[in-house]
Specification:
about 250 residues, alpha+beta, six-stranded antiparallel beta sheet, 21 strands, about 50% strand, DUF4333, DUF4333 domain-containing protein, signal
Length: about 250
C-alpha cells in the first residue's frame, strides 16, 4: 500500500558546499616564544595560506590561541564573502621544537548553517524564506546530521541536513524533507479510511519520517476494540513529495 505526502514547496535533497580548498591540510607554524600559536599569528597564517590557494578571505577570526600540544584544538571563523563563511576546526598534529603542525577540518557554526540553508532553499525553490532555526552547527564528518525548522509564508516545516561528502575543506550536505509525526498519523488515517471505508479512531507513530528512501517508523492504529501496528517505509523522494509504503507490522 502506497501513500504520498507533499510538503510546502521548499525543495529537497539540495546540495551545498562549504568553501575553501584542501591546501590547508598539514600546515606548520614556527613560534618564537613558548610552544603555542597566538590567535593573531594563527589568523595571519591561515589568511596567507588561503590567499595563496586562491581563496583570499575578508576576515579570519580565531577564538583562542592554539596550544602546542598534540590533539589541542581551536576554531576560526573564515569569511570569504557576505554569503560565504565557515568555521573550520584547527587541530595540532605534531610539535617539533618551535614548530607546531596542524590540520584543519571543515565545520559550520549554527548561524552559518542557518544562513546557508536559507540561501540555498531560496535560490533553489525561488521562495522568500522567513527564517531558519537549526538545532546546532554541522561538523565536517560524513553522515553527521542536524535538524532545521524552515519558515516560509508563515508555515514552518522541519528539514534534516546531512553531510554527504568531505573533500579537504569542502563540506557537501543535503537538505531533506521531513514528515512530522502528526502529519504521518493524519495521512495514514486518511489512507486507511479510503481503504476500509471508515476512519480508524487514532494512529500513534514512533516519530517523524525523514525523506530518505528506506527510512521507516512504526505506527499503532486503533479502531474500536482492535489495535494494529503498521510499518511505514519511505519508497521514493521526489522534490517535496515523499512516497511511503505501509503494511501490517510483522
Amino acid at each position: 500500500m502506497l501513500s504520498t505526502m507533499v510538503l510546502p514547496r521548499l525543495g529537497a535533497a539540495l546540495a551545498a558546499a562549504g568553501l575553501a580548498g584542501a591546501a590547508l591540510a598539514g600546515c606548520s607554524f614556527n613560534v618564537s616564544t613558548g610552544v603555542s600559536v597566538s590567535k593573531t599569528d594563527l589568523e595571519k597564517d591561515i589568511s596567507a595560506r588561503l590567499e595563496k590557494a586562491g581563496q583570499k578571505p575578508q576576515t579570519v577570526t580565531c577564538k583562542d590561541d592554539l596550544q602546542g600540544e598534540v590533539g589541542k584544538t581551536t576554531r576560526c571563523e573564515v569569511v570569504l564573502s557576505t554569503d560565504n563563511s565557515f568555521e573550520p576546526v584547527v587541530t595540532v598534529t605534531k610539535v617539533d621544537g618551535a614548530t607546531v603542525s596542524y590540520d584543519m577540518t571543515p565545520a559550520l557554526s549554527k548561524a552559518q548553517l542557518e544562513k546557508g540553508v536559507s540561501g540555498l532553499l531560496a535560490k533553489a525553490s525561488n521562495v522568500t524564506v522567513d527564517s531558519v532555526s537549526c538545532d546546532g552547527g554541522l561538523e565536517g564528518k560524513e553522515g553527521t546530521e542536524t535538524h532545521c525548522d524552515v519558515t516560509v509564508a508563515g508555515v514552518t516545516s522541519k528539514r534534516t541536513v546531512v553531510v554527504t561528502k568531505i573533500e579537504g575543506l569542502m563540506l557537501y550536505f543535503n537538505v531533506l524533507p521531513v514528515l512530522e509525526k502528526a502529519q504521518v498519523e493524519s495521512s495514514l488515517l486518511d489512507q486507511l479510511a479510503t481503504q476500509l471505508g471508515s476512519r480508524p479512531d487514532s494512529a500513534t507513530c514512533t516519530g517523524d519520517l525523514e525523506g530518505k528512501v528506506g527510512n521507516s517508523i512504526t505506527c499503532t492504529v486503533v479502531a474500536g476494540p482492535e489495535t494494529q501496528d503498521f510499518a511505514l517505509t519511505v519508497s521514493d523522494v521526489n522534490g517535496d513529495r515523499i512516497d511511503f509504503n505501509y503494511k501490517p507490522a510483522a
